[in-house]
Amino acid sequence: MESxxxxxxxxxxxxxxxxxxxxxxxxxxxxxxxxxFSSWLGSEDVGFIQYHVRRTSTTLLVHSSLPLGYYAGxxxxxxxxxxxxxxxxxxxxxxxxxxxxxxxxxxWGLVIYWSRRQWSNHPICRTLQxxxxxxxxxxxxxxxxxxxxxxxxxxxATGAPGARVIVTDTWVLKVATYHVHVAQQTDxxxxxxxxxxxxxxxxxxxxxxxxxxxxxxxxxxxNSFDIRLMSTEYSExxxxxxxxxxxxxxxxxxxxxSELFLDTFKAHxxxxxxxxLPSEMEVELCxxxxxxxxxxxxxxxxxxEGSDNECRQCFCRPMWCLSCLGxxxxxxxxxxxxxxxxxxxxxxxxxxxxxxxxxxxxxx
Length: 364
Ligand SMILES: [Zn+2]
Ligand SMILES: [Zn+2]
Ligand SMILES: [Zn+2]
Fold this sequence. Notes:
Helices cover 38% and strands 15% of the residues. By secondary structure, it is of the alpha+beta class. It holds the Pfam family Tmpp129.
């Protein structure tokens, strides 16, 4: 390995990055601001708004102290640099130390400014102020309403703790690292603006589609924001909302695992060797949907002849299109355990001989 200071620098950079952006491994290890300061932050259920005012302030202070932490660590990791003796170190290190101290002082100054007049200057409380009715009254009533509704068990909540989306009877809330976005249901328009599909892979056991929904308020004092959720949670969200969600014309929302699986199924089938249609054979319409010509043929490709795999050769002529065969494949699976789908065999819809995803060939 390189010198200890290079090793420390790399390790500290990785640690800082993970601490700020919190991947799941860090979260499960408890290395988050929420966890480390949980006794001071109190309970989110008791006072949702107060909790997040404390959490965002603490997060700012902790994140802004990371450069100072690096300097302190280097004092130990590289004793030959004489870092504890500020007058002896190079100009570069002096500048780094001064900048880190400034960053820390500025964030303390900011947090002290926020805390004046019972936290009225905090960005979250200012956001609440925009919803106060009438305008001149304080944000306290809005905070109480949100706190009360957050405690109800019938709220909609999804996402990782650092990027949670919560919908209560009156409010749409999005928790971010340094802020909580708030919109009142009655004056918001929601529209699905984007969708990203993740196929089933060894890393993710189930196929997922992530929807991006824009929450825009007719109240000019409220900034619009984006929320993200899985398409399978979409209907639950719609139930909780009183207003309809508009959808951009090009976004197709897949609400069930089977629909999501279809893309994975098609992608895998395309990787298999194609079936060259004999010139004398005519292809008829798919007998499942009667919409498109049959486009698949089952050929036992998954293993050598004689091995004791469940798959058997199917001698049916091409009868099904890829979508219908994919739906059939998904419908014959254990619906509770989508992670097993790619590896399992199902019977051919016509002759009942078993096939797996490796045996699905597209017709050329
Ligand atoms: Zn079909
Ligand atoms: Zn068959
Ligand atoms: Zn097979």
